Amino acid sequence: MHISNLFKIALRAIAANKLRSFLTMLGIIIGVASVIAMIAIGQGSKQSIQKNISEMGSNMIMINPGQDRGPGGARQDASDMQTLKLKDYELLKENCKYVAAISPRVSKGGQFVAGNNNTPSTIYGISPDYLEIRQLKVEDGAMFSDDDVRTSAKVCVIGKTVADNLFPAGEDPVGRVIRFGTIPFRVVGVLKSKGYNSFGMDQDDLVLAPYTSVMKRILSVTYLQSINASAITQDKTQEAIDEVTTLLRESHKLKGEDENNFTIRSQEEMASMMNSTSDTMTILLLVVACISLVVGGIGIMNIMYVSVTERTREIGLRMSVGARGIDILSQFLIEAIMLSVAGGIIGILVGLGAAWGINVFAHWPVLVQPWSVLLSFIVCTATGIFFGWYPAKKAARLDPIEAIRYE
Questions:
Q1: Contact by Cβ (8 Å): 289, 42
Q2: Are 261 and 65 spatial neighbours (Cβ–Cβ below 8 Å)?
Q3: On the chain, which terminus has fewer CB atoms closer than 10 Å, C or N?
């Protein structure tokens, strides 16, 4: 029998039972749409994480006091979290050849006041190099200077969110005085807006001030909460980490068997961890979505069995007038594949629409990969062949005489 005739017969059979055919395709539609949407969410999350890591500086290194965990996972003593000193910062600044920029960091959250307006935020005590490390830019005014750091000047640079909250009427913040508690700080600059990151954190809700001012006037401490640095290039990040580790161990007089009393993390390491978590979640979501495809395939097999049973006499008549087993097999297999492919095409459109809707209404980052659409189409076609083969094979093996007698 000619292949075009087999397609016509399959189309007539599908059209004769429109509602049943649609319900059969529904499982495939939901499965394919779920696969595309889930992959789009996973890939969008990964891209967003990579973008945020890149914006923060892909070669950034974070040095924190204390070990990752105390012995046996116990909480560490407060003194263990005071192991980074200004002398460590000075040592690294003067001796690290693989470090392009370095800045100490101390911080404290609290209420900022300007006139009758106030807003909660966090003040970060840093050096001017912090802008290069975090890839921040001053949009209005200027960054405070090294002289301001040496003299513990009460000056600051504020983020766009803080500026909007403290000066809602649109006044120029540069030159104005804001208070953190009872301590006045003169605004010398406003940072360029960076918006929210993928973790939902407002990157513009911050105030930067000389670390000496924050340590002396606000925190009254002599230790650092952390040190941030950036390697000369991303490829040299590990060399920079090794160099920092060696210098700090010498500074802290740690012997060969002693564990570090500081922790070093790189953005590359953080990105790897976040990407690994994102990939795991994507795989879990994908497995759930694939279950829908399996359910849809079972639905196709079930309907094809029903179709073979209903058309047993028709099969017998076709075989009695010369149709071969391969023709009957092809007829029902084509019907199953057409149901699966049609469901796959509709599912692709629904999946693309769902990904768009998630991005627009839920504001989740999504990225539809062409390979996910191709993969979904291949899988739904394979599903039609796999689940349609056995019912079609059963139809091809019917005895024509018994089939004609079937009631």
A1: no
A2: yes
A3: C
Structure token digits, residue 213 = 């001012």
Kindly state the average pLDDT of the residues 384-391: 83
Q: What is the per-residue pLDDT across 193-208, written as a single tens digit (0 to 9) for each?
A: 988 765 667 889 999 9
Rounded-to-integer distance, Cα 249 and Cα 264, Å: 12
pLDDT, tens digit, 9 for 90 and up, residues 213-265? 999 999 999 999 999 999 988 788 889 999 999 999 999 998 878 889 899 98
Residue with tokens 């699966």: 340
Of 156, 152, 147, give the one whose Cα is nearest residue 176: 156
**Domain map of the chain by residue range?**
3-52+273-405, 100-232
pLDDT in tens, 38-80: 888 888 877 777 777 666 666 889 999 987 654 444 445 555 6
For residues 73 and 70, give the distance between their C-alpha atoms in angstroms, rounded to a whole number.
5
pLDDT at 2 over 90: no
Query: What pLDDT, on a 0 to 100 scale, did the predictor assign at position 71?
Result: 46
Distances from the Cα of 379 to the Cα of 26, 347, 365, angstroms: 15, 12, 25
How confident is the model at residue 54, as a pLDDT? 64
Nearest C-alpha neighbor of 306 from the set 383, 386, 394: 394
Reduce the secondary structure of the chain to three states and give it as a string.
CCHHHHHHHHHHHHHHCHHHHHHHHHHHHHHHHHHHHHHHHHHHHHHHHHHHHHHHCCCEEEEEECCCCCHHHCCCCHHHHHCCEHHHHHHHHHHCCCEEEEEEEEEEEEEEEECCEEEEEEEEEECCCHHHHHCCCEEEECCCCHHHHHCCCCEEEECHHHHHHHCCCCCCCCCCEEEECCEEEEEEEEECCCCECCCCCECCCCEEEEHHHHHHHHHCCCECCEEEEEECCHHHHHHHHHHHHHHHHHHCCCCCCCCCCEEEEEHHHHHHHHHHHHHHHHHHHHHHHHHHHHHHHHHHHHHHHHHHHHCHHHHHHHHHCCCCHHHHHHHHHHHHHHHHHHHHHHHHHHHHHHHHHHHHHCCCCCCCCHHHHHHHHHHHHHHHHHHHHHHHHHHHCCCHHHHHHCC
Instruction: Round to whole Å and give the CA distance between 342 and 23.
Output: 12
Predicted model pTM: 0.64
For the chain, state the CA radius of gyration: 33
